[in-house]
């Protein structure tokens, strides 16, 4: 009733409880207080607080007990009431325990009150307060879900710098969001921070960056990203690997293409298109033996492409072989 703003009904219910000789407890009064704080009803806040003091549910002079009051209210999920006492303590320059800041941050985060949680986090940062890891983790998770602005990104980086990170799945969603919005620098930076910390994001969040690197001829960046993922035994999806293979052959990075293909093989991430790219690429640099070996592997794995593609593939073999024979004959004539 307090949450809905029907305070007359709430007080009527309290009176009925008292008439039945049932004393409402701290939780009951705090529910009404929380609703009043949420709606900014000062009159009800003062009335409930007064009754709670009268019934010794709150201290008459809470200077030394703000920590325990905030803790109780946070544990009950009464974040609006907890925030009221928290702000009073801050305004009155009463030194709260570091743990109280953590409780307030976590409680606001759990209620998805992101704006208020950010304000508390800024206080924590400004005052050099250290809170427990679970509070940081919860805050980082909500930043990934709810606050994806530039400010949210900066705050997330700050949380990560403290040694705490959101879950890999939440980070992956955030990175994917940044890619969709074309915020490539932020996506790249966040992904590298995540990988450097030994966390492995979902492959779907890495694929857009690899594709962008390859289309922009930033092969070094694409390979560097793959190498970091390889160290964590992570992988990309087959389609993205095919884009990477094509980019490596276009840049004449044959050895790296072979190494990436071998990694794909070990993780069973090859498709008919993967073999086609490898065979064409190797034929293009006159590596016919390697191309033929991969061709045979393709047939053994029953990944032969459609008839038209396969015909072009064999034609490429024949043309490359014919060119090599012609060149060899020319060399012999000399």
UniProtKB/TrEMBL annotation:
Q: Which UniProt keywords apply?
A: Repeat
Q: Where are the PPR repeats?
A: 25-59, 132-166, 167-201, 237-271
Q: Tell me the superkingdom of the source.
A: Eukaryota
Secretion signal, residue range per the UniProt entry: none
Q: Which InterPro entries match?
A: Mito_RNA-Proc/Resp, PPR_rpt, TPR-like_helical_dom_sf
Q: Which family does it belong to?
A: Belongs to the PPR family. P subfamily.
Q: What is this protein called?
A: Tetratricopeptide repeat-like superfamily protein
From what organism does this protein derive?
Answer: Prunus dulcis
Its lineage reads: Eukaryota, Viridiplantae, Streptophyta, Embryophyta, Tracheophyta
């Amino acid at each position: 009733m307090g949450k809905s703003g029907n305070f007359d009904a709430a007080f009527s219910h309290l009176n009925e409880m008292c008439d039945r000789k049932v004393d409402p407890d701290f939780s009951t009064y705090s529910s009404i207080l929380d609703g009043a704080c949420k709606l900014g009803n000062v009159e009800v806040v003062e009335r409930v607080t007064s009754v709670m003091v009268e019934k010794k549910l709150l201290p008459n002079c809470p200077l030394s007990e703000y920590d325990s009051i905030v803790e109780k209210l946070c544990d009950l999920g009464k974040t609006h009431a907890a925030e009221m006492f928290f702000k009073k303590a801050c305004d009155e320059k009463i030194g709260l325990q570091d743990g109280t800041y953590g409780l307030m941050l976590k409680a606001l985060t759990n209620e998805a009150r992101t704006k208020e949680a950010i304000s508390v986090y800024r206080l924590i940062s400004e005052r050099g307060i250290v809170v427990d890891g679970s509070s940081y983790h919860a805050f980082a998770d909500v930043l990934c879900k709810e606050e994806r602005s530039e400010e949210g990104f900066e705050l997330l980086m700050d949380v990560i710098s403290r040694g705490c990170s959101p879950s890999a799945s939440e980070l992956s969603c955030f990175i994917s969001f940044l890619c969709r919005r074309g915020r490539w620098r932020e996506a790249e930076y966040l992904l590298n921070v995540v990988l450097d910390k030994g966390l492995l994001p979902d492959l779907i969040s890495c694929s857009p960056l690899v594709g962008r690197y390859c289309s922009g001829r930033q092969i070094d960046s694409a390979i560097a990203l793959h190498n970091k993922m390889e160290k964590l035994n992570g992988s990309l999806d087959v389609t993205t690997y095919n884009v990477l293979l094509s980019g490596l052959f276009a840049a004449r990075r044959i050895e790296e293409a072979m190494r990436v293909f071998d990694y794909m093989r070990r993780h069973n991430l090859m498709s008919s298109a993967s073999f086609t790219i490898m065979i064409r690429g190797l034929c293009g640099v006159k590596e016919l033996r390697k191309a033929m070996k991969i061709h045979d592997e393709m047939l053994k794995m029953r990944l032969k492409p459609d008839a038209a593609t396969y015909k072009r593939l064999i034609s490429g073999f024949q043309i490359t072989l014919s060119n090599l024979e012609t060149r060899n004959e020319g060399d012999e004539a000399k």
